[in-house]
């Protein structure tokens, strides 16, 4: 069983990551004229709705199968795909390496254009890094509680 306050914290952080990534990618699609970035919105928003419904189901009656689906959804989309890959790698690491002065060749190998943009828009980079900022507390809560939740 997931304690209610922990469930609310996990769901809140996950929903925040999903909303933030939707805003971030819509903004990126507009400023970089790259409509392909909008695909993330079509993953993030439905995932958020499913996650919210699973959250409500767990509050009403904690069932093992619901808990498993909830945890899989949290781990796959907000944690791995968005938090770790999009937030930590695509933005936090990219910005650190860029401002640390990595060679342009190495930078382009790690972050090949046109898929990646060099940091040139403050709002885009801040919203990207914020995905990583939200990832760390979410990952901490999940890792510190996983054995107690008995999802296996």
Automatic annotation (TrEMBL):
> Mind telling me which residue stretches traverse the membrane in this protein?
38-58, 70-89, 122-143
Alphabetical UniProt keywords? Membrane, Transmembrane, Transmembrane helix
Q: What is this protein called?
A: Uncharacterized protein
| Species the sequence originates in | Chitinophaga fulva
């Amino acid at each position: 069983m997931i304690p209610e306050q922990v469930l609310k914290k996990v769901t809140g952080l996950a929903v925040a990551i999903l909303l933030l990534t939707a805003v971030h990618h819509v903004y990126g699609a507009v400023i970089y004229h790259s409509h392909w970035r909008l695909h993330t919105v079509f993953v993030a928003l439905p995932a958020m709705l499913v996650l919210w419904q699973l959250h409500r189901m767990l509050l009403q009656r904690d069932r093992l199968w619901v808990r498993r689906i909830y945890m899989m959804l949290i781990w796959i989309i907000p944690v791995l795909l968005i938090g770790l890959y999009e937030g930590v790698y695509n933005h936090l690491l990219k910005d650190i390496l860029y401002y640390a002065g990595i060679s342009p060749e190495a930078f382009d190998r790690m972050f090949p254009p046109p898929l990646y943009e060099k940091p040139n828009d403050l709002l885009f980079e801040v919203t990207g890094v914020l995905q990583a900022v939200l990832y760390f507390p979410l990952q901490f809560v999940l890792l510190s509680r996983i054995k107690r939740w008995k999802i296996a």
